[in-house]
Protein backbone atom coordinates (compact mmCIF):
# COMPACT_ATOMS: atom_id res chain seq x y z
CA UNK A 1 0.00 0.00 0.00
CA UNK A 2 1.49 3.39 -0.93
CA UNK A 3 2.37 5.68 1.93
CA UNK A 4 -0.10 8.54 2.37
CA UNK A 5 1.08 12.08 1.72
CA UNK A 6 2.27 13.11 5.18
CA UNK A 7 2.07 16.80 4.37
CA UNK A 8 -1.59 16.42 3.44
CA UNK A 9 -2.20 14.66 6.76
CA UNK A 10 -0.37 17.40 8.61
CA UNK A 11 -2.86 19.94 7.26
CA UNK A 12 -5.53 18.44 9.53
CA UNK A 13 -3.32 18.82 12.59
CA UNK A 14 -2.50 22.41 11.62
CA UNK A 15 -6.21 23.10 11.23
CA UNK A 16 -6.72 21.89 14.79
CA UNK A 17 -3.83 24.03 16.03
CA UNK A 18 -5.40 27.09 14.40
CA UNK A 19 -8.78 26.27 15.94
CA UNK A 20 -7.05 26.16 19.32
CA UNK A 21 -5.39 29.49 18.66
CA UNK A 22 -8.75 31.04 17.77
CA UNK A 23 -10.15 29.73 21.06
CA UNK A 24 -7.35 31.40 23.00
CA UNK A 25 -5.56 28.11 23.55
CA UNK A 26 -2.11 26.72 22.89
CA UNK A 27 -1.81 26.13 19.12
CA UNK A 28 -0.88 22.46 19.02
CA UNK A 29 -3.00 20.05 17.00
CA UNK A 30 -2.90 16.39 16.14
CA UNK A 31 -4.76 13.69 14.25
CA UNK A 32 -4.67 9.91 14.20
CA UNK A 33 -4.91 8.21 10.81
CA UNK A 34 -5.14 4.68 9.51
CA UNK A 35 -2.27 3.54 7.29
CA UNK A 36 -4.20 4.45 4.14
CA UNK A 37 -4.69 8.01 5.35
CA UNK A 38 -8.25 7.56 6.66
CA UNK A 39 -8.88 9.97 9.52
CA UNK A 40 -9.66 8.19 12.81
CA UNK A 41 -9.70 11.14 15.20
CA UNK A 42 -8.45 14.70 15.50
CA UNK A 43 -7.89 17.04 18.40
CA UNK A 44 -5.97 19.90 19.95
CA UNK A 45 -4.40 21.05 23.15
CA UNK A 46 -7.18 22.42 25.36
CA UNK A 47 -5.32 23.15 28.58
CA UNK A 48 -6.51 26.75 28.57
CA UNK A 49 -9.99 26.20 27.13
CA UNK A 50 -10.98 23.44 29.55
CA UNK A 51 -8.55 23.98 32.39
CA UNK A 52 -7.41 20.43 31.75
CA UNK A 53 -3.67 19.84 31.50
CA UNK A 54 -4.20 16.28 30.29
CA UNK A 55 -5.78 17.32 27.00
CA UNK A 56 -2.89 17.49 24.57
CA UNK A 57 -3.33 17.37 20.81
CA UNK A 58 -2.28 13.73 20.67
CA UNK A 59 -4.34 12.54 23.64
CA UNK A 60 -7.37 14.40 22.31
CA UNK A 61 -7.03 12.84 18.84
CA UNK A 62 -6.43 9.44 20.42
CA UNK A 63 -9.60 9.64 22.54
CA UNK A 64 -11.68 10.90 19.60
CA UNK A 65 -10.54 7.89 17.56
CA UNK A 66 -12.29 5.58 20.01
CA UNK A 67 -11.35 1.94 20.36
CA UNK A 68 -9.07 0.50 17.70
CA UNK A 69 -8.17 -3.17 17.43
CA UNK A 70 -4.55 -2.38 16.75
CA UNK A 71 -2.47 0.76 16.54
CA UNK A 72 0.53 -0.74 14.79
CA UNK A 73 -0.47 0.59 11.40
CA UNK A 74 -1.82 3.91 12.62
CA UNK A 75 -0.10 7.24 12.10
CA UNK A 76 -0.10 9.92 14.80
CA UNK A 77 0.35 13.26 13.13
CA UNK A 78 1.11 16.20 15.38
CA UNK A 79 2.22 19.77 14.78
CA UNK A 80 4.98 19.44 17.39
CA UNK A 81 7.42 16.84 18.68
CA UNK A 82 5.38 14.77 21.18
CA UNK A 83 6.02 15.49 24.85
CA UNK A 84 6.94 12.63 27.21
CA UNK A 85 3.31 12.14 28.18
CA UNK A 86 2.23 11.72 24.57
CA UNK A 87 5.34 9.72 23.71
CA UNK A 88 4.28 7.35 26.47
CA UNK A 89 0.87 7.03 24.86
CA UNK A 90 2.47 6.18 21.51
CA UNK A 91 4.64 3.54 23.19
CA UNK A 92 1.84 2.12 25.34
CA UNK A 93 -0.52 1.53 22.44
CA UNK A 94 2.10 0.61 19.87
CA UNK A 95 1.37 3.37 17.38
CA UNK A 96 3.70 2.57 14.48
CA UNK A 97 4.37 5.96 12.98
CA UNK A 98 4.63 9.50 14.32
CA UNK A 99 4.71 12.39 11.88
CA UNK A 100 5.54 15.73 13.45
CA UNK A 101 5.31 19.18 11.96
CA UNK A 102 8.40 20.39 13.77
CA UNK A 103 10.85 19.82 16.59
CA UNK A 104 12.38 23.29 16.76
CA UNK A 105 10.26 24.91 19.45
CA UNK A 106 10.23 21.82 21.63
CA UNK A 107 11.68 18.33 21.66
CA UNK A 108 9.86 15.68 23.62
CA UNK A 109 10.36 11.95 23.40
CA UNK A 110 10.62 11.41 19.66
CA UNK A 111 14.28 10.35 19.85
CA UNK A 112 13.37 7.76 22.45
CA UNK A 113 10.41 6.59 20.38
CA UNK A 114 12.72 6.11 17.40
CA UNK A 115 14.94 3.90 19.56
CA UNK A 116 11.80 1.91 20.42
CA UNK A 117 11.28 1.18 16.75
CA UNK A 118 8.63 3.79 16.02
CA UNK A 119 8.90 5.34 12.57
CA UNK A 120 9.51 9.05 13.24
CA UNK A 121 9.11 11.65 10.50
CA UNK A 122 9.96 15.32 11.04
CA UNK A 123 8.45 17.47 8.29
CA UNK A 124 10.26 20.62 9.51
CA UNK A 125 7.22 22.61 8.46
CA UNK A 126 7.77 26.40 8.44
CA UNK A 127 4.10 27.13 9.21
CA UNK A 128 4.14 24.93 12.33
CA UNK A 129 7.41 26.46 13.49
CA UNK A 130 6.19 30.04 13.06
CA UNK A 131 2.74 29.41 14.55
CA UNK A 132 4.03 28.08 17.85
CA UNK A 133 7.14 30.30 18.02
CA UNK A 134 5.01 33.44 17.81
CA UNK A 135 2.55 32.12 20.34
CA UNK A 136 5.28 31.18 22.85
CA UNK A 137 6.83 34.63 22.49
CA UNK A 138 3.49 36.18 23.44
CA UNK A 139 2.60 33.63 26.16
CA UNK A 140 5.78 32.42 27.87
CA UNK A 141 4.06 31.76 31.18
CA UNK A 142 1.34 29.46 29.81
CA UNK A 143 3.93 27.69 27.71
CA UNK A 144 6.17 26.93 30.68
CA UNK A 145 3.13 25.63 32.52
CA UNK A 146 2.26 23.35 29.60
CA UNK A 147 5.69 21.77 29.30
CA UNK A 148 5.99 21.38 33.06
CA UNK A 149 8.73 23.95 33.55
CA UNK A 150 8.82 26.31 36.50
CA UNK A 151 7.74 29.74 35.46
CA UNK A 152 11.02 31.42 34.65
CA UNK A 153 10.62 32.93 31.18
CA UNK A 154 13.79 32.29 29.23
CA UNK A 155 13.75 35.15 26.81
ZN1 LIG B 1 1.78 15.91 24.83
TrEMBL record:
Residues 4-113 form the CMP/dCMP-type deaminase domain. SUPFAM superfamilies: Cytidine deaminase-like. This is Nucleoside deaminase. Gene3D superfamilies: Cytidine Deaminase, domain 2. InterPro entries: CMP_dCMP_dom, Cytidine_deaminase-like. It comes from the Bacteria.
Amino acid sequence: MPRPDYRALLATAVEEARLGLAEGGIPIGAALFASDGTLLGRGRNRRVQEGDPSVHGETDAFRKAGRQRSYRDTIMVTTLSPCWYCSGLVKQFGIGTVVMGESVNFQGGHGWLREQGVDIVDLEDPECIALLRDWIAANPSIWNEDIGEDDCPHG
